[in-house]
Amino acid sequence: GKYFLVDCGFPNRRQFLAPFQGVRYHLQDFAGQGNDPENEKELFNLRHASLRNVIERIFGIFKSRFTIFKSAPPFLFKTQVEFVLVCAALHNFLRKECRFDEFQIETVDEPSSSNPGARAKRR
């Protein structure tokens, strides 16, 4: 099935995955030794926050690389979803096949307990 990763402004319901309220959520809350998740709800929120972070980074890359993402496109939602899929495929193809692609991504460490990678930024 398909699920929407949503923030705490949405209720947890069918196909909507919201974090648990009143439970640690932000990656920085789990940073450092001894700040590991203490229960299943905290673990869910940590994974939710990590995934949300990845999604925000990739859309930052898409906005830098593909101008169609710089403003709200005048297309149906279904078409917008297809744009995301096509741009993801195109981005991955260019990263793999074009050695001299002018768009480079460098990584910058950011604090988190699981070191969920790095923030992408354009050079």
UniProtKB/TrEMBL annotation:
Belongs to the HARBI1 family. It comes from Cajanus cajan (Pigeon pea). The keyword Nucleus applies. GO terms for cellular component: nucleus. It is found in: Nucleus. Its main location: nucleus. Residues 1-92 form the DDE Tnp4 domain. Its cofactor is a divalent metal cation. One of its GO terms (molecular function) is hydrolase activity. This is DDE Tnp4 domain-containing protein. Keywords: Hydrolase, Metal-binding, Nuclease, Nucleus.
